[in-house]
Amino acid sequence: MNMDSQHWDAIRDFGAVAIALTAIATVAAAIIKWGVIKPLKNYIDHATIQLKPNHGSHLADAINRTDTRVDEIATGQTQLLNIMLEHLRTHGVTPPPLAIKPPTQ
Q: Where would a tag sit more exposed on the chain, N or C end, judged by fewer CB atoms within 10 A?
């Protein structure tokens, strides 16, 4: 066997190893993508779907509606408190000190 033949054999062997490693890496990447990443993404999407508003029945929508309603109730209570205090003052009654300070509007 001459030197030229050994040189080409080494190049051929190197190419075969490179092709084999590329094939193994490709299969490993596919297994990781479809066996690990895809199921993990689906799990996270399923777990967090309720946290994204959908203009309907998701948890985030319910929280937004509740928050809005609490603000409306607080505004109404403040208005009612102001009416009661004004009524007491018009009849010469000094209202007792409030345990909490009414919010300003």
A: N
